[in-house]
């Protein structure tokens, strides 16, 4: 129903939505509200906090799988027990799945990049970086080629199916490829790298103290190095802005 509100200068009619309109618009309003909350959320802080728990969970699962192998009564023997038990097959498959997950995360970490175009940089002055290349302005780059594994496969496909070189009248720009892994995957790599998974694979009742200590030391060292390099980049940026 419309409501009337006015001042000394006149009357202004305000139309309030009906109950049916509120019910009909409620799903879309909730979606918009949820999208605003997602955009306002600090995902870097959330990813750093959640990666710690995910890494602890994966390490605990790997240790439990190794303990399960200890309690598997039938050890594989080519003469006495030429066939693996069903429990051993299940445990072996789970261990290989976790190792493959760790390897996939490590590959993503090393190949995760993002391209930046240096439009203000002179073409005759090559920037001092090994991750720089010249690219035609307006050259269509698919979306899948901006992330791993597309950023690795796309240049190879270009070299195979397209003619090398640039058009005579084309405009070019320097493009720098910056290493850009996510915080979640980077922390997960520190706490659950392939080296640590292999160490846990050889865990048994006699060497568990030494191997667990080695896995923890590797994780702490990787995390400290990552933190130091992140601080170095921030400090260099502060110094550069002050100069």
TrEMBL record:
<dbReference type="InterPro" id="IPR018819">
    <property type="entry name" value="Nur1/Mug154"/>
</dbReference>
<keyword id="KW-1133">Transmembrane helix</keyword>
<keyword id="KW-0472">Membrane</keyword>
<dbReference type="GO" id="GO:0043007">
    <property type="term" value="P:maintenance of rDNA"/>
</dbReference>
<dbReference type="GO" id="GO:0012505">
    <property type="term" value="C:endomembrane system"/>
</dbReference>
<dbReference type="GO" id="GO:0007096">
    <property type="term" value="P:regulation of exit from mitosis"/>
</dbReference>
<keyword id="KW-0812">Transmembrane</keyword>
<protein>
    <submittedName>
        <fullName>19102_t:CDS:1</fullName>
    </submittedName>
</protein>
<feature type="transmembrane region" description="Helical">
    <location>
        <begin position="208"/>
        <end position="226"/>
    </location>
</feature>
<feature type="transmembrane region" description="Helical">
    <location>
        <begin position="49"/>
        <end position="67"/>
    </location>
</feature>
<feature type="transmembrane region" description="Helical">
    <location>
        <begin position="87"/>
        <end position="111"/>
    </location>
</feature>
<dbReference type="Pfam" id="PF10332">
    <property type="entry name" value="DUF2418"/>
</dbReference>
